[in-house]
């Protein structure tokens, strides 16, 4: 009898561990950002959506993001095992088989797109499908191993969730949510290039052509600073078209100017020891910055 109990506990532990690995395949951190920005896009739209409909629609968008993350890990399993940042992911560690990851990712893709179509509308479902296809085939399969501009072009997929949120509510695509798309799109390069500065050896080992390895550290720092400056007109745009108020404009400009400052601070330093520290500062602040920008936008619209 005790043997049966032990076997049941072992099965339960193995199932729990496998389930945890499946969740990790879906890149839960990325999913949380997708959920948040999609929710903001939905909440700032002029059309009010019933709570259940909003939650179920955002759930399917999150599943779609998880599908894209899973298929990304499936395709990049050979690279992930070479990099310290990714070597402990479920496929490199043998917790999930590649074929299982592929099946899981494809299944999630179908569930998310058809689920969003059923509970929301065709425009939202089409944009979600575009997001998955773009992230997997354009960014992961085509661009990432071929060009240092991979993150610039590939960033479009990560910028679409607030647009999807807007279309869930309105069943239409207008210029207003495009301003939210542009905020994420122009934020993405400086964010990821800051990461690539202190993870350059990892990318070199995996032969991924990130900017520090192809164009050098100084060029990367210059591009980080330039893209941080691009955020100034992008942040002003929602106010310019009447989509946000002065609260968002002033607060976001303060956050952006500080972002410009720390990116310039990274640019002017030439000592490797300080570069790593300052690159980490830019990377960490960029996450905080994007989160606050969207929080401010939501507060501004609700007020």
Structure description:
This protein has 303 residues and is mainly α. It folds into two domains: 28-173, UbiA prenyltransferase (Tetracycline Repressor, domain 2), CATH 1.10.357; 174-303. Helix content is 81%, strand content 0%. It contains 14 helices and no strands. The protein has helices at 2-25, 28-43, 51-75, 77-80, 98-119, 122-143, 150-158, 161-170, 175-198, 200-205, 211-214, 217-240, 246-268, 272-302. Helix 5 runs antiparallel to helix 6, helix 6 packs antiparallel against helix 7 and helix 8 runs antiparallel to helix 9 (175-198). The radius of gyration is 21 Å and the shape is flat. The chain starts with a helix and ends with a helix. The mean pLDDT is 92.
For the residues shown, what is the average pLDDT?
92
CATH class of the largest domain equals Mainly Alpha
Q: Can you identify the CATH superfamily of the largest domain?
A: UbiA prenyltransferase
Summed up, the helix count is: 14
Question: Keyphrases for this structure?
Answer:
303 residues; mainly alpha; Tetracycline Repressor, domain 2; 14 helices; 81% helix
Short overview:
The protein has 303 residues and is mainly alpha-helical. The radius of gyration is 21 Å and the shape is flat.
Describe the SSE topology.
Layout: H1 2-25, H2 28-43, H3 51-75, H4 77-80, H5 98-119, H6 122-143, H7 150-158, H8 161-170, H9 175-198, H10 200-205, H11 211-214, H12 217-240, H13 246-268, H14 272-302
Helix pairs in contact: 2-3, 2-8, 2-14, 3-5, 3-6, 3-8, 5-6, 6-7, 6-8, 7-9, 8-9, 9-12, 9-14, 12-13, 13-14
């Amino acid at each position: 009898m005790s043997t049966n109990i032990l076997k049941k506990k072992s099965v339960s532990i193995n199932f729990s561990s496998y389930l945890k690995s499946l969740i990790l395949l879906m890149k839960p951190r990325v999913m949380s950002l997708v959920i948040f920005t999609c929710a903001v896009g939905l909440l700032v739209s002029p059309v009010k959506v019933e709570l259940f409909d909003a939650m179920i629609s955002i759930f399917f968008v999150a599943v779609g993001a998880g599908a894209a993350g899973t298929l990304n890990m499936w395709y990049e399993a050979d690279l992930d095992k070479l990099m310290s940042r990714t070597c402990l992911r479920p496929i490199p560690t043998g917790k999930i088989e590649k074929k299982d990851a592929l099946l899981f990712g494809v299944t999630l893709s179908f569930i998310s797109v058809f689920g969003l179509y059923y509970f929301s509308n065709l425009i939202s479902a089409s944009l979600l499908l575009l997001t998955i296809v773009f992230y997997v085939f354009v960014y992961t399969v085509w661009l990432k191993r071929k060009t240092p501009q991979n993150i610039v072009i590939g960033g479009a997929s990560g910028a679409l969730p607030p647009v999807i949120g807007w279309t869930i509510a309105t069943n239409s695509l207008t210029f207003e949510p495009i301003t939210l798309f542009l905020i994420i799109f122009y934020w993405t390069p400086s964010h990821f290039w800051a990461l690539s500065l202190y993870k350059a050896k990892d990318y070199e080992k995996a032969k991924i052509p990130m900017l520090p390895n192809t164009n050098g550290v100084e060029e990367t720092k210059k591009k980080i600073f330039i893209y941080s400056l691009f955020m100034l007109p992008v942040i002003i745009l929602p106010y310019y078209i009447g989509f946000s108020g002065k609260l968002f404009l002033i607060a976001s400009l303060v956050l952006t100017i500080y972002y410009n400052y720390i990116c310039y601070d990274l640019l002017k330093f030439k000592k490797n020891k300080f570069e790593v520290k300052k690159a980490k500062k830019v990377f960490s602040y960029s996450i905080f910055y994007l989160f606050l920008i969207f929080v401010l936008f939501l507060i501004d619209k609700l007020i």
